Amino acid sequence: MRIAHFGHSCLLVELHGKKVLFDPGTFSHGFEGLTGLDAIAITHQHPDHIDPNRIEALVDANPGARLLADPQTAQQRGDRWEAVHAGNVLTLGDLRITGGGGRHAVIHPEIPVVDNTVFQLGTPDDPAQLVHPGDSLWVPPVPVGVLAVPAAAPWMKLSEAVDYLRAVAPRTALPIHYGIIAPEAQGIYFGRLSEMGPAGTEFTVVEPEDQREF
C-alpha cells in the first residue's frame, strides 16, 4: 500500500492496483493535478473535506473515477455521485470498499449533525487494510491495518483521540485532520498519540505532499 498525504484529511491511497483519493478539501493542496484516479471518496460535506471551488476540475480531470460520498453529499453533488451508506460493500477491481459509521461527531448540541461515511479499503478476507474515518470516532468491527486517525478537531479532545486509537488498535496509525494546528504545535498532538497509543501500533507521520509505503 502506498499513501500520499496532501494535507489535513486528503489522502491518495494506492492499494490492489487502484488509486483512491479521499477528502480533497480547502485545507489540502497538491491534489489538483492528479489524473488516473479510480475513485474519489468524500466522507462528508464540510468544505475542509470537499472544496467546492476545486472539486469539479478534479472530477473533470478524472472522467473514469468512481465518485463516492456520504448520502447527503452525494445528493447535493448530483447524479454522478454514489451514496455510500454504512454497511454498503463496493468492489473496484480487486479492491473492496466497505462503508461504516454514518454520522459526523457532535460539534455542539445546537449544530446539526451531518452524514459521515467511514471508508474501509481492503479485500473480502481483510476488509480494513486502510480506514479513513472522516470526522468520526467509529470503531471498525474487524482488525485494522492503517488507521488515518484524526489528530485535532473542533469536535474532539486530545484524550478522545487517544482513546479512539486505543479502541481501534491498528497496526499503523497515520495522523490526519491537523490543518487547524499551527506547525509549531503539531508535536504536542503527535507526541501524545505516539506515546499513549496501544502497544504494537506504529505511529507514522506522512508530511503534506509526501508519501510512503506501508
From TrEMBL:
Residues 7-177 form the Metallo-beta-lactamase domain. PANTHER family: UPF0173 METAL-DEPENDENT HYDROLASE MJ1163, UPF0173 METAL-DEPENDENT HYDROLASE MJ1163-RELATED. This is MBL fold metallo-hydrolase. The lineage of its organism: Bacteria, Bacillati, Actinomycetota, Actinomycetes, Mycobacteriales.
